[in-house]
Amino acid sequence: MSIKENDVNSIPRLEAKGVTMKFGGLVALADVDLQVPAGRIIGLVGPNGAGKSTLFGVLSGLLKPTTGSVFMDGVEITGAAPQVRARRGLARTFQHPELFASLTVREHIALGYRVRHHKSRIVTDLITGRGLFVKKDADEDARVDELLEELNLTNIQHSAVVGLPLGTSRLVEIGRALATGPKVMLMDEPSSGLDVAESEDLANTMRKVAEHGVSLLFVEHDVPMVLSLCDYVYVIDFGVKIAEGTPEEIRANAAVRAAYLGEESDEIHISQADADLAATSAGDLA
Hints:
The strands form 2 sheets. Strands 6-7-8-3-9-10 form a 6-stranded mixed β-sheet, sandwiched between helices. Strands 2-1-4-5 form a 4-stranded antiparallel β-sheet, with helices on one face. α4 runs parallel beside α7 and α7 packs parallel to α8 (196-211). The protein has helices at 3-6, 52-60, 82-87, 105-117, 122-127, 138-150, 166-179, 196-211, 223-229, 247-251, 254-260, 272-285, and strands spanning 14-23, 26-36, 41-45, 67-72, 75-76, 90-93, 184-188, 215-219, 232-237, 240-245. The chain has 2 domains: 3-99 and 180-250, Rossmann fold (3-Layer(aba) Sandwich), CATH 3.40.50; 100-160, no CATH class. The protein is an alpha/beta fold. The chain contains 12 helices and 10 strands. Helix content is 40%, strand content 21%.
């Protein structure tokens, strides 16, 4: 059963309808539809230049589409600023972790909590640093402790983020995003630069996040990771959605194979076993 069939009576946490984005004469996105149901992990893949980053910009509010609409929980937010979307429960992580060099792991997660619950303290926290060391409320301490434990960061909570391994830095960024209490998280190439063990840890963390009811939409070049982790996958190429479906449906899709098979781009990481299987499947269709 596809995710659309399974969630047919549910209002998507995040939805794009007929999104088209033009930059002068360049059509970066053409009539793209996408849904992110509650508590699901959704993948967005496509070759380099397909329009994935542009779509993320539209969904996060950094770009306003030429035509089309964006909704959260059924409410249109097409013209809403990123901070408005954040208050509605949209969070985002980036390909290169955006962390503050002078702050500790715990302080990053505390800042995420305060973005949602104590916005008036953020300027003091960031500019003077004094707000980070004053007495916290019990709810903040409890939530920060909980996230540190879930992400296996408790032992390094008082360490500065400078010099942390990339995989650990990504977990800190995820923790900060989760501390804002999001309904939906946009994740931009979360496995980029990670080794196999770090990628596995990240995938397990993403599964835990979804189990707590947070929806995940992530752009990723590691196709095997997407197919093993996601409930549903969207594929775009040259700004056009060429396929959508369960991982099994995507594996069997001829248009997806045409877009990927034989490419030597360093952004597509298909294991030899997957490549052999795909080649065999393609041969069976000949």
